Amino acid sequence: DTGVSQNPRHKITKRGQNVTFRCDPISEHNRLYWYRQTLGQGPEFLTYFQNEAQLEKSRLLSDRFSAERPKGSFSTLEIQRTEQGDSAMYLCASSLAGTGAMNTEAFFGQGTRLTVV
Amino acid sequence: AQKVTQAQTEISVVEKEDVTLDCVYETRDTTYYLFWYKQPPSGELVFLIRRNSFDEQNEISGRYSWNFQKSTSSFNFTITASQVVDSAVYFCALTSSNTGKLIFGQGTTLQVKP
Predict the structure, then answer these.
(1) Rounded Cα gap, residues B30 and B35, in angstroms
(2) What's residue A2's pLDDT?
(3) Angle subtended at Cα B53 by Cα B97 and Cα B6, rounded to the nearest 5 degrees
């Protein structure tokens, strides 16, 4: 396994269109995170999954955003009716956690850069 | 509320100089973890180190060293004898929940000139 994989690497879309990104985590990792990073800023947490359950969502995640992780493997992040303010780098990370325990460090993918025109 | 502050936006040094990146954090939790990540132009965040709140020992890994001081809520990162390949954006991050959710600073862009 070569790490966290994200596709596509780049996406240009017109305002109002829907887009979907995919993240394949490190295979044995049970936690998967989505972050958003805008230019000159640090990544901001969007949501995370433990196995297939989505356990927390940030208030940054508007109703136009939805994330899934069927079967606790890969995850998708969909943005409906994209707006120019959605332009950012979307980063996925995965980690391994035991029940009730602090998890290991998160490993990040290379991100999907979204440009909404 | 939790917060991570990296006051240095950009640092420029000449190769072989030592450089220290500052990180100050805020949390009310007694158990927490601090991290440093490197983000090269390719975009991927590369994990460098994790330190828990009960371990204030400084750590050295090759040319990298970290100074964790709870008294000043700081977790500074020093690169000794910098190299051009060290040029990147460096992020300090904090988590204190069992979710592992990371709170990042704004990052410090390090430019190492030959």
Answers:
(1) 16
(2) 73
(3) 85
Using a CB–CB cutoff of 8 Å, tell me whether B41 touches chain A: no
Q: What is the pLDDT of residue A71?
A: 86
**Closest approach of chain B CAs to the CA of A55, in angstroms?**
9
Question: If you measure CA to CA, which chain B residue comes closest to A43?
Answer: B104
- pLDDT reported for residue A103: 61
Q: How many CA atoms lie within 13 A of A77 on its CB side?
A: 30
The structure tokens listed for B2 are 């939790």
In this complex, is the C-beta atom of B4 within 8 Å of any C-beta atom belonging to chain A? Answer: yes
Residues of chain A where predicted confidence (pLDDT) is lower than 50: none
Whole-number pLDDT of residue B97: 72
> Number of residue pairs across A and B with CB atoms under 8 Å?
65
Give strand ranges (E) for A1-117: 5-7, 10-13, 19-24, 31-37, 44-50, 53-57, 65-68, 75-79, 88-95, 107-108, 112-116
Contact flag A111-B44 (C-beta cutoff 8 Å): yes
Q: Which residues of chain B have pLDDT under 70?
A: none
Q: Which residues of A touch B105 (CB under 8 A)?
A: 42
Look at A102 and B98 and tell me if their CB atoms are within 8 Å.
yes
